[in-house]
Amino acid sequence: MAAIVDRQNVDFLLFEVLGLDGLIQHERFSHLDRTVIGQAMDSAQAIAVEVFQPSASKLDQNPPVAVNGKVSASEDITRALRAYAEAGLPAQGFDHEQGGLQFPFVLTQAINGMFNTANLPLFNYWLLTTAAANLLQTFGTDAQKQTFAAPMIEGRWTGTMCLSEPQAGSSLSDITTRAQEVGDGTYHQGHQDVDLGRGA
How far is CA 190 from CA 171, 183, 187, 193, 196, in A? Predict the structure, then answer.
């Protein structure tokens, strides 16, 4: 099995180059120290190597299929998602008051980088779940946060992102936008091509 990470280099980058030691001196991260961080990294690496990586080629060869109106997928997917959730990793970047572990972003990136390397298609389940939970925590009502975000942060639910346009499907780079200026500084869907990315 190929190595997915050189921990000596990662630890050097985290502590010596990126200054994680200084970051965890701040009150927000005072619950962390090198020992706790090392244990989190060790646990994540073990799951990535022992659970995510071995299933990568198998899942490529046996993708989910629709059978009689239901999706049939490999048990390896369930096993990997459960292992990540049981380790508490869906909560790593969220605040304590949101049920999270309140890890600094740089640490979550180091941890999740191991899963990206081990099996990115499978890890996308958790990447999209984190995105959905963050969206709800930022813009959702209290009821939505409790109903939807909390189970995602706990790792009981997964979330997704649905992007589709008639002419582009889910290919974001192919999406085009049409808008018509109303006159009061706002736009409505119309026939005038507008490059919204340039502030038109």
Answer: 22, 13, 8, 8, 13
Strands (E), the chain: 65-67, 70-72, 178-181, 187-193
Token representation of residue 47: 């799951």
Q: Please, where in the chain does CATH 1.10.540.10 lie? A: 7-154
The single-letter DSSP state of residue 58 is: H
- Whether pLDDT at 200 is above 60: no
Closest C-alpha among 122, 128, 119 to residue 4: 119
Using one digit for the tens of pLDDT, what is the confidence trace for 182-197? Answer: 888 888 765 434 344 4
CA distance 11 to 34: 10
d(CA 131, CA 86): 19
CATH code of the region 7-154: 1.10.540.10
Spatial separation of the C-alpha atoms in residues 155 and 129, rounded to whole Å: 9
Distance of CA 166 to the CA centre of its chain: 27
**C-alpha span between 187 and 145 (Å, rounded):** 31
| pTM for the predicted model, two decimal places | 0.78
